[in-house]
Amino acid sequence: MAAERGGCSLEAVPLPPEVRESLAELELELSEGDITQKGYEKKRAKLLARYIPLIQGVDPSLQAENRVLGSSQATAAVSKQQKSRSTNSRDERFRSDVHTEAVQAALAKYKERKMPMPSKRRSVLVHSSVETYTPPDNHSAPPDVTTGLVEHLHHEHPQVASVRGVPRGYNSSILETADGVPVNSRVSSKIQQLLNTLKRPKRPPLKEFFVDDFEELLEVQQPDPNQPKPEGNQVNVLKGEPLGVVTNWPPSLLAALQRWGTTQPKAPCLTALDTTGKAIYTLTYGKLWSRSLKLAYTLLNKLTTKNEPLLKPGDRVALVFPNSDPVMFMVAFYGCLLAELIPVPIEVPLTRKDAGSQQIGFLLGSCGVTLALTTDACQKGLPKAQTGEVVTFKGWPRLIWFVIDGKHLAKPTKDWHPQVRDASAEIAYIEYKTSKEGSTVGITISHASMLAHCHALTQACGYSEAETLTNVLDFKRDAGLWHGVLTSVMNRMHVISIPYALMKVNPLSWIQKVCSYKARVAVVKSRDMHWSLLAQRDQRDVSLSSLRMLIVADGANPWSISSCDAFLNVFQSRGLRPEVICPCASSSEALTVAIRRPPELGGPPPGKAVLSMNCLSFGVIRVDTEEKLSVLTVQDVGQIMPGANVCVVKVDGTPYLCKADEVGEICVNSGATGMAYFGLLGITKNVFEAIPVTAAGVPVSDQPFTRTGLLGFVGPDYLVFVVGKLDGLMTVSGRRHNADDVVATALAVEPMKFVYRGRIAVFSVTVLHDDRIVLVAEQRPDASEEDSFQWMSRVLQAIDSIHQVGVYCLALVPANTLPKAPLGGIHISETKQRFLEGALHPCNVLMCPHTCVTNLPKPRQKQPDVGPASMIVGNLVAGKRIAQASGRDVTQLEDNDQARKFLYLADVLQWRAQTTPDHPLFLLLNSKGTVASTASCIQLHKRAERVAVALMEKGRLNVGDHVALVYPPGVDLIATFYGCLYAGCVPITVRPPHPQNLATTLPTVKMIVEVSKSACILTTQAIMKLLKSKEAATAVDIKTWPTILDTDDMPKKKLASIFRPTSPDMLAYLDFSVSTTGILAGVKMSHAATSALCRSIKLQCELYPSRQIAICLDPYCGLGFALWCLCSVYSGHQSILVPPLELESNVSLWLSAVSQYKVRVTFCSYSVMEMCTKGLGTQTDILRMKGVNLSCVRTCMVVAEERPRITLTQSFSKLFKDLGLSARAVSTTFGCRVNVAICLQGTAGPDPTTVYVDMRALRHDRVRLVERGSPHSLPLMESGKILPGVKVIIAHTETKGPLGDSHLGEIWVSSPHNATGYYTVYGEEALHADHFTSRLSFGDTQTVWARTGYLGFLRRTELTDASGERHDALYVVGSLDETLELRGMRYHPIDIETSVIRAHKSIAECAVFTWTNLLVVVVELEGSEQEALDLVALVTNVVLEEHYLIVGVVVIVDPGVIPINSRGEKQRMHLRDGFLADQLDPIYVAYNM
């Protein structure tokens, strides 16, 4: 092996045996991780130093093992070894040098393509030695991936008051270039690299997709016309040699045991060894017989429950024995058979969380197992409950544990004799098997098949009486059970059982035992041969000449051939004859399928085939003559079993016979196969009762065949070849790949340096209707970040070259963390389960969806627009009415002459101060729920007068000057607002800066003050100090503030005269707000609009002086401002003001206030609702005890400028239903910049309706109503009722023509309370004039509309509204500015985010944005950082599945990183700027390839 190991370089130079042995020793140390790679190379170089002159021409590019190859030697080596596979792993994987060569050659073809390396926060590095690699900076803006033009810059459209976050020439740290790309950022250059790798056309472009305009169909991969097709003749059923007739062959296995137990009691049956290799006990046939009898008697007669026997014949019993105790297992197995009980051997459960343990429990439950047999030592080691009993493992039935050591067994009475019957079709035992998906099934084996199988094996292996056999395999199942427990007893053989623990300590133990016991047969797996090669230096004097048969139980594995070859190379000199190596193929369902015959039985010579990997992927066998890189070398597994018929059938669908050059599933018909899957009739029929048919559909036999799950073909000399297993089959885009082959390729990429013990798992997951390959490897503890990334990129390239298939996800986990199978190896289905659940905790991940996912729907092409005339005609013909709706008509609703008398709010306040001076208007609550301050009509009027005096005298302001009001939420804010109106100034309310966070909050204050051209700032003393403080100076230029006045101690002076506007169209106030896209927009509100707004709200909510409403909103802009500052003065009702900030210290403040004041109407924001839902979820009982009762609430409205968050409102309603909240109370409002209140539920009118629309149609700007729960359905709730005086129409976003009912378009609004325009610094009014003064392009072209910038639709419902008309519902879908244009379709970020948040329990929040056509998903991780990388694949999967989009970058951050404004809306553009400027401190950034 050392020779093989050192590669062909050492083949060419004869090395003395001692040098070879030292090399092997080194190899072992390295593979076990005992020395570092560096140490290994140093020592190896030292050993070889004397021979180095003989080895020239080291090519550094082939540095996998410092492998050296002259070209002539290379070809010789390839042909000599064919493609043998072996690895240095201690697991069942073996690297093949030639395969390694192929991989190196494949990698050499790829010039180092720089891929952006994922960035990772330092704390997450499991073990890193290299600083995270940062690529060089790029100053150019990134190219647009779609066009591939580097010159094409990605510009944002100039927006309102284009102040993205900061005015120019301001805080340089947030400064960016015009297109929103920060200069000189590490992130942008990484994305630049990613774009460069994506831009290179990897494969020829895909064929044209087909897509119906409405439905997005996924591309169906068309078969390649040039793909290889099978051309041979149909292969008929192959018949094995007949089972020979043997004189005095026992009628059943138990009869054989009885015969040997009574006639040859002293003959040795089984020798057990301890971990030092000492024989601790030899069980004789007499002992086996007598102890089995005792056990059978005890089980049937001594175990009772309620005076009834616990067991009756035919019951199933679990056998739980460790691998080190074959003796007790054998007694238990035969004891059960004698008692006519059915043994179900399983693994010893070590912990409550063993891989696959739950599934075993399910099997035991479905088999009705109530009793488990075990040994004393084993029972002591099982986890116990506090009562001292063995715990019930997760998913297991309750079991009675019975210890079968001698002292617990009773001696049978004289008259008791078991019935030793002839072999029948009754079940003898059940063997468990774990399927590819991880479910565990029990395969039933009858007494008859058990006997027939023993007979067939005896004949095929030429077993004779009293032979000695060494068994290294697990004796509980499969070949270990068949040869070492069943057939051995049939033939009175002596079995030496080698426990797994001994093999781990001394891999040579089995060879030493063969030698010392002169064993004739050994049953091993490839890894046992491999391990012994690494250790053979220990023994000079072992001899394998006694062996007539070395059975390789996993001969069907792709790496077994290299193990066999390498083993022979080394041990041929120690007496091993080449012809005794007998690979065999078996399956749990069909038992032994084929085995190479020992030399004395004279089978045909062994065969080898070098097959083209590409053809195999199409299921076609082509011998590869050109020695290409991608070949698979397989050895035969001998001939089929005596007495069996075998055929090869197509893998999918009807079992048609295959052609001679076609790979199919091997099927067996014989008396020696399993009978069924216990209790599972459906899949049993499919597997155990297959009826193969010819091409014409004629059944080949009247007997059913059993499918083996092995994929292969029958070669020359009727030898069987296996090229893969159904369990490891991955069908990607119509081509079949074998997981084991992919593992072998990955291992050939410098395995020694990187993969821990060669532990690699490969499986496929279904994403978007196709299998996607996932590769998970354990990395060595000393591997650096750089190593990992390098290795990952090389593995991707190697697999791409050799298998021509892309890997979807490559994950690295820390050493020793993958779930293990019972005797070594990786538990694949459990690994897959953890991957899908996000519980694998990788330390590195690389996803390549861009190369793998080739079945996305075609990007949408915009159709030429239909002309306006035909559109109107079309709608009429279709019976569609134009989508327009309006609230009640205001002119007919006037309840008094207040509206006519008072056009100005200042007049209303004066009138109230005179007529109802002591009527309370405002109550402000503090966090304790007590009243912090109040204001009656007269108090408010007097404070307003004082403010007006101060503005004129101290501030020397003129009429029409702008004044910024910087106050915390409270009565001061309201009083100063009216003071400004009294003085004829224009107020602007501004949220004060946060003292703990000046750096981010103060610039916004400064910006609003500057942009609004405020001549003066009114504020409190505390805030005034803050604005001029040293800390403030670091954030903004404090020298440029306008006059700042504090209103804390104002002189009591009477105002000479209160200002009266000359016309209702004069400016009353400015309303500034930062939109979610990061744009600061101020709108102008005239006196007429202000009064109209108040009047509409008053009518909709039926507000009168006797009413109370509770408001938990911020008072700075939009409807929140109107409800705080305007409505109470206009309508005279009392407002209970609850500042949302106070909820941070007392979450129940708002709801308690609503209950205490018995409020009928209340307003809140989404962030308040979310705080209550999260913060009070568990406290509803406590609140009820405190007397909180919400049954008074008629309507609770969420003030919003977005699509209603239906899940949040529903969970809020559900949660507080316990406190009496009516299910109908909660609704939402809708407003925007051009009109702050378009819809509002109010107190009358029908409840808001919900419809379900097809999300895919929405991407095409269409509305398609579907049933609740149908796939891709999205619930949309109506945004309240349209306010009185408001008219709404839906217009086409591009043609500006009116649309029909239930069509998606932009919502346009016309109303007396529309704002009159944007107030901008740059006088760019012309740009945005159409936002406020648009006209339809056809139809009613007279009305002037304002464009809201929101997409939505109107739908006439069956309900009637207050006026008796049919009610028109308005559904808001989302802001046009926020939508993402991807693949020609329009996506709303919230839809993608909703999918992502559902993907894993630890995702707290998510936000998405695009950057140069890449979709970036930012996820907040609420959990431990080790979960961070689990999210990458889950996020990518869910977005692919549900939205047909490939995620470009996944960014994982801490909770609270995604910025959210006071309305509870995500600030995606701020987030994007932060990401590109490298300010998020992410836990991990994954760049998907």
Describe the structure.
The protein is an alpha/beta fold and 1489 residues long. The protein contains 44 helices and 59 strands. The strands form 15 sheets. A 9-stranded mixed β-sheet has the order 4-3-14-13-15-16-17-18-21, with helices on both faces. α9 (285-301) packs across α10 (326-338).
Summarize it.
This protein is α/β, with parallel strands linked by helices.
Quickly list its features.
single chain, 1489 residues, alpha/beta, 9-stranded mixed sheet, 30% helix, disordered N terminus
Low-pLDDT residue intervals, each spanning 5 or more residues: 1-12, 53-96, 124-185, 201-214
Structural class: alpha/beta
Helicity level: 25-40%
Main beta sheet, described?
9 strands, mixed
Beta-strand segment tally: 59
Radius of gyration (CA) equals 40 Å
Tell me the strand percentage band. Answer: 15-25%
- Give the distance, in angstroms, between the N- and C-terminal Cα atoms: 39 Å
The rough form would be described as: elongated
Mean pLDDT: 84
Compile the SSE list and pairings.
Elements: H1 2-5, H2 8-11, H3 17-31, H4 37-48, H5 71-81, H6 97-109, E1 119-120, H7 186-199, E2 238-239, H8 253-263, E3 268-273, E4 279-284, H9 285-301, E5 304-305, E6 308-309, E7 316-320, H10 326-338, E8 342-346, H11 357-366, E9 371-374, H12 376-381, E10 400-403, E11 427-434, E12 440-446, H13 447-461, E13 468-471, H14 478-490, E14 494-497, H15 500-505, H16 509-516, E15 521-524, H17 526-535, E16 549-552, H18 560-571, E17 581-587, E18 591-595, E19 608-612, H19 613-617, E20 631-635, E21 639-640, E22 645-649, E23 664-669, E24 676-677, H20 681-688, E25 706-714, E26 720-725, E27 729-732, E28 735-738, H21 739-747, H22 751-754, E29 755-766, E30 771-779, H23 785-803, E31 807-814, H24 828-837, E32 844-847, H25 849-852, H26 868-877, E33 884-886, H27 898-901, H28 905-915, E34 920-925, E35 931-936, H29 937-953, E36 962-966, H30 971-983, E37 986-990, H31 998-1011, E38 1014-1019, H32 1021-1027, H33 1030-1035, E39 1043-1046, E40 1067-1074, E41 1080-1086, H34 1087-1101, E42 1108-1112, H35 1118-1131, E43 1134-1137, H36 1149-1156, E44 1161-1164, ...
Parallel strand pairs: 3-14, 7-8, 7-9, 9-10, 13-14, 13-15, 15-16, 16-17, 30-31, 34-43, 36-37, 36-38, 38-39, 42-43, 42-44, 44-45, 45-46, 57-58
Antiparallel strand pairs: 1-59, 2-22, 3-4, 5-6, 11-12, 12-24, 17-18, 18-21, 19-20, 22-23, 23-25, 25-26, 27-28, 29-30, 31-32, 33-49, 34-35, 40-41, 41-51, 47-48, 49-50, 50-52, 52-53, 54-55, 56-57, 58-59
